[in-house]
């Protein structure tokens, strides 16, 4: 399973639409989830609408959270999107086997077995999370909350039985002409992620769309260590025939 987890406080203002970029990610089999970080008040209607639209176009979820709630929100988003991805894959396969029938059409014992396997797959399937951090100037006061959230995300991923890999990007880049920077390539050594944030220079504009395209290109150009896009294919047949 491949997903982008975008942490931002709102409105993009440079480059292509992040909604279009998220739709492109979805077409590549990459789910885009978005967490909007609030401090005092709210991020405004425009920013909230954009966050929702990015996630919808990317086939993912969106949530807004105050800084003190960010850690819980990040963990919850990751767990929910893993479960959602498994459910969608299983439902797709069930539809091929059962036609237009739903899981509710199965006999109770078969239905229970399908649910059990779905839970097992959510825990054991391989997962790649590209963490994309908005490091524009407006995010600077929220950096401590983002650090705490990422620390808790690492603990959550380490607790899974399946293989979990993470890559970390931030935008905008400190160097002129770059919209996004890779801070850490795919790794299963999750402890090193926390050391990245204190080094970030928080400034500049918010090129969210170009940053999303940068992350997608990283996968397309071989940044992924292996393809895990269709890992659930064929795994439900024995339970429904």
UniProtKB/TrEMBL annotation:
InterPro entries: VWF_A, vWFA_dom_sf. Residues 1-86 form the VWFA domain. It comes from the Bacteria. It comes from Paenibacillus chungangensis. Gene3D superfamilies: von Willebrand factor, type A domain (3.40.50.410). SUPFAM superfamilies: vWA-like (SSF53300). This is VWFA domain-containing protein.
């Amino acid at each position: 399973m491949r997903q982008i987890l975008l942490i931002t406080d709102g409105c993009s203002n440079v480059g292509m639409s992040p909604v279009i970029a998220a739709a492109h990610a979805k077409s590549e089999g990459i789910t885009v989830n978005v967490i909007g970080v609030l401090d005092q008040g709210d991020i405004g209607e425009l920013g909230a609408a954009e966050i929702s639209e990015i996630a919808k176009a990317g086939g993912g979820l969106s949530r807004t959270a105050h800084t003190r709630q960010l850690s819980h929100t990040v963990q919850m988003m990751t767990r929910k999107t893993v479960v959602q991805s498994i459910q969608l894959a299983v439902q797709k396969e069930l539809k091929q086997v059962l036609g237009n029938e739903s899981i509710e059409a199965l006999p109770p014992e078969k239905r229970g077995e399908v649910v059990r396997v779905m839970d097992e797959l959510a825990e054991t399937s391989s997962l790649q999370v590209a963490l994309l951090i908005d490091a524009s100037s407006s995010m600077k006061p929220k950096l401590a909350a983002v650090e705490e959230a990422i620390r808790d995300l690492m603990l959550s991923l380490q607790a899974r039985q399946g293989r979990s890999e993470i890559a970390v990007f931030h935008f905008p880049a400190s160097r002129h002409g770059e919209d996004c920077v890779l801070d850490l390539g795919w790794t299963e050594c999750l402890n090193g992620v926390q050391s990245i944030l204190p080094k970030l220079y928080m400034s500049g504009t918010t090129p969210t769309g170009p940053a999303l395209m940068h992350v997608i290109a990283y996968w397309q150009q071989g940044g992924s260590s292996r393809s895990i896009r269709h890992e659930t294919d064929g795994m439900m047949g024995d339970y429904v025939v």
